[in-house]
Amino acid sequence: MSAVLSPSVALPPGVTRSEGVWAAAWRRFRGDRVGMVSLAIVTAFVLLMGLAALGLVAGDWQAERGVPNAPPTFMGPAAKTASVGIASPTGPNVDISAVDPLAPRYREWAERAAKFQTTETTRAETLPFGGDRLGRDVLAKAIKGAQISVFVGVLAALVATLIGTVLGALAGFFGGKVGDALEWLYNVFTSIPGILLIFAFAAVAGRGVQSVVLILGLTGWTGIYRLVRAEFLKHSVREYVRAAEAIGAGAGARIFRHILPNVSHVILVQLSILVVGFIKAEVILSYLGLGVSVDQVSWGTMLAEAQSELILGHWWQLAAATAFMAVFVTAFSLMTDALRDALDPKLRGAE
Amino acid sequence: MLTIQDLRVRFRLGRGAAASHIEAVGRGTTGVSFDVPENTTVALVGESGSGKSVTAMSILNLLPDNAERHGAITFQGRDLLNAPLAELQALRGREIACVFQDPMSSLNPVFSIGQQLTEPLIRHLGMGRRAALEKAEGLLAEVGLPEPKRRLGAYPHELSGGQQQRVMIAMALSCEPKLLIADEPTTALDVTIQRQILELLARLKERHRMSMLFISHDLGVVGEIADRVVVMRQGTVREQGPVAGIFAAPQDAYTKALLACRPTLEQRGARLMVIDEHIGGAASAPPARPKDADAPVVIEATGLTKSFWIRRGVFGRSAFQAVKGASFRLRRGHTIGLVGESGSGKTTLGLTLLRLHEPSGGPVGGQALFEGRDLLALSRQEMLPMRRRIQVVFQNPYASLNPRFTVAQTLVEPMALHGVGTDSTDRARRASALLAKVGLDDSALGKYPHEFSGGQRQRIAIARCLTLEPEVLVLDEAVSALDVSVQAQVLNLLKDLQDELGLAYLFISHDLAVVRFMADEVLVMKDGVVVEQAGVEQILEAPQQEYTKRLLGAIPRGYRAAA
Predict the structure, then answer these.
(1) Of A14, A15, A20, the CB nearest to B448
(2) N or C of chain B: less Cβ packing under 10 Å?
């Protein structure tokens, strides 16, 4: 972040640039074993998502490949229930062609049907991790669902962070009337219960990935706003900012070039926390039917379907969605923790 | 009473096999050894980083967990180094008490003075609440706090810095300790308050017949209060002995240098001695260039006032005048010293000239002419080119540089903003030339501020100002946060730059000795009013105002045989 915002300076030959804050943070992060493992897991998820987005993995998640509610392979096929047919009638045969008005056309239809070939696809008795009620592969659904859920979480977190950071920076830096107005806005947003606010936005915006991103972004910026505002309040009276004003740096330069890199660690950590929160929020929204549209799959829609399946004892869809979400969210949270440790200025002082 | 033998303290960094150590006290196998006899004041003197505070803190093991102590500390025959925590806790406050540098952070803001004072009495002496309160009142009276009964219910923020330090001393005295450890107890205070506290400490030491371990970086203060002096540098003891001997006939080259590099009120040299020069033996200062008394006037201020709004009630507000009518003429190549205690409005005056106040600040009055244009009446747009010509150096070099900028970025930014230099390579060339001018080399360009010491950072801050080729520099306590020896270097640098570039300085300081060294004319401020204004010699030789005399009298003058 700071590399983009700081003025680039040509150093004379022979002068090496010292290890910056980010390089030092990365060095500390590398020393954290839990952090590195969780980073690897998150990276694996991101790669999987990329492949899913390109259609290389789980592109055919809609294909109905197994029998309805096919159980996972390791459980073996479901026991055959003896089909109880209707008892065939026993009376004398009656020719009903006389009374059937369509009878003359049967021959014609049979000829036309003979021009096409239909083969009954043999549906698998079992799928690697089971199938849903249409026989779709649960594993493919979970992977495709990961793509949507994580995409929504990250994008919504970025939107919320952008809003929160800009408003917080303005409120903290300028104070006065600007600060009062933004504080009022913040108070309005926080005085409405969060889930209610989300529902209100969802009712207006309708279903779809974009709406979910927008809803979560527009409702979730308050926490980051509060923290960024506090940081800017603190930093805007620091001497280095005053020194920047003395050399003639304008308000924009002071906000974004001087103060922002100094508070960016707060923003980064908040961003990661928001990602986790928003993934869960998307799941809740989709579960309640306010989330992504019906032709898409997310962990939330999977959980919503699992509700009715569970009554019939088909637990695998629930297990798949839960396992994926638990692993990803835990790994991401641990990564955030390690990130915060690596960026914490208080720990930096101890070196 | 207290014996420290061969003490070595080092801090462990990192965990397990990758742990490294930093030696804070002692180097290699040589440790620190000294005694504190009964009823004596021993002073530990040294620059920051010399290990003096760590030495004192290790007596009661008030160090962080990653400290490793070796050697021996005995107090009245008891071994403190290996004492269990419970025994140390019984000693802390009871037999050995501490007073720290910053009273504002040493007092708990949510408890009243009475509560904080009675706690050790009830805890260590087993007194009842009523008896403890009575004792606390007596203690406050003893440390010279007016209206002690009423103060018992006051909270720390209701007291001034000096009063807070008195409360801290009262708290330290409450259990009548045998040894008082005072860690820079007056550094954060004004000179006049410092004088009062020093006298109070000396008086209390006599009355309670206790010993004192007094830690300071200021030889002037030490000379007045100590019986024995221990000079430390880089974790080792350089010299120790009775105060008279140390001041009259210092043996160690470092002690000599330390004594020489402090500007004094008695004489005004062209340059100050710098430690390394002194140790190296090179000591010939070039004669001062006489100043042209008729140099063109750069800034002419008349009747400068500045007020702040204070909220009253829900909607009301009233103005508080921080500066009440200051007038001066600053000539090219000259320095005006601005002296006063904290709260006297001297910094406000400087910031008003620079127009560096909060946007919500109060009204400004008077005028400050800079080449015929009133700085205070310029619009924001018109002020921008003016910024180039009036620059400021702040007090705290740790706060005034952006920690996320390399030195090169810090130096190039102002040039880019004002279009100095043709392109980025030209600017980088100028930056390295300026660094050379303030005594740093090119390798500094790629580094971040935290890699430099305080003095080096202040040099970088000065270099940043010089990038814009200003005509006026406002130096707001620019050397107050620096060690004496580093202070001397920076003061010399400022003098050289003034000689070379013809800069005009507005030198804001609470330290009259430093002002004497730098300034040609002095403004003494009190409560926003300029109480006295005259040439530097005149002010110091024949002060007219009572306040100026008091300020001069309060300056620690080191050890004098007659005193």
Answers:
(1) A20
(2) C
Of B494, B472, B470, B490, which Cα lies nearest the Cα of B480? B490
Look at the domain B330-359+370-553 and name its fold.
Rossmann fold (3.40.50)
Q: Which residues contact B149 (CB under 8 A, 6 or more apart)?
A: B137
User: Is B399–A238 a contact, with Cβ atoms under 8 angstroms apart?
Assistant: yes
How high is the mean pLDDT in each 10-residue block of chain A (351 residues)?
Answer: 48 65 80 89 90 82 80 76 70 76 85 80 77 84 87 91 95 89 92 84 82 87 93 88 84 88 86 87 82 81 84 86 89 86 57 37
Residue A173 lies in a domain: yes
Tell the CATH topology of B1-95+209-257: Rossmann fold (3.40.50)
Question: Three-class SS string for B354-378?
Answer: HCCCCCCCCCEEEEEEECCEEHHHC
How many residues appear in chain B?
563
CATH assignment at residue A297 = 1.10.3720.10
Tokens representing B456 are 């080096």
How close is the nearest chain B Cα to the Cα of A342, in Å?
13
Its pTM stands at 0.75
CB atoms within 10 A of CB B372: 6
Torsions phi, psi of A298, nearest 5? -140, 170
Q: How far is A270 from A201, CA to CA, in rounded Å?
A: 23
Count Cβ atoms below 10 Å from residue A194 Cβ, excluding itself: 13
Using CA atoms, how far apart are residues B247 and B307, in angstroms rounded to an integer?
46
Closest Cβ opposite residue A261 in set B400, B404, B467: B404
Burial class (CB in 10 A: 0-12, 13-18, 19+), A120: exposed
Closest by Cα among B50, B56, B174 to B123: B174
Q: How many helices (H) and strands (E) does chain A have?
A: 15, 0
Q: Do B402 and A175 make contact, defined as CB atoms within 8 angstroms? A: no
Distance separating alpha carbons of residues A189 and A200, to the nearest angstrom:
12
